[in-house]
Design a protein that fits this description.
The chain is α+β, with helices and mostly antiparallel strands. It has 3 helices and 6 strands, in the order ααβββαβββ. A hairpin with a 2-residue loop joins strand 2 and strand 3.
Length: 134
């Protein structure tokens, strides 16, 4: 199981996310801030398999976690406060993942890069993957 693809597949078609992010998703690599002219979501693995459950002495489940970064260029938003938009988008992502058994494990302080007029919010999520070969 690939946590990056799983998270992407859960959030990519959500209407509020499509409205602001479109298809601007990245894995593992943060886009160069000077190249951002709208919004991006970056999904990065944090822990890729810590054993959490055993049966008959065999590992049957692993915990995996990923960090989700939302980047939003202030100038791309003309109708509302970009700080509130990024906050609402991250809440929406947290709700979607919560509905699919992902627990939020960290919430980092929101950032604003005034030189690039870029907002950023980051959260980490974790879930357990049960092995199908057991």
């Amino acid at each position: 199981m690939d946590i990056l693809s799983d998270i992407y597949n859960l959030i990519k078609d959500d209407p509020p996310l499509v409205e602001h992010v479109g298809s601007n998703y990245k894995y593992n690599v943060m886009p160069d801030v000077s190249d951002i002219d709208t919004a991006y979501i970056v999904i990065t693995p944090v822990v890729n398999g810590t054993p959490v459950s055993y049966a008959d002495g065999k590992r049957i489940a692993d915990a995996k976690s990923a960090r989700v970064d939302m980047l939003l260029k202030a100038s791309a938003i003309t109708s509302d406060n970009p700080r509130l938009i990024i906050q609402n988008i991250m809440e929406r992502i947290a709700d979607i993942l919560d509905d699919h058994h992902y627990g939020q494990t960290a919430n980092f302080a929101p950032e604003y890069d005034k030189d690039h007029k870029l907002y950023r919010e980051t959260r980490s999520f974790e879930t357990n993957y049960y092995r199908s070969d057991y």
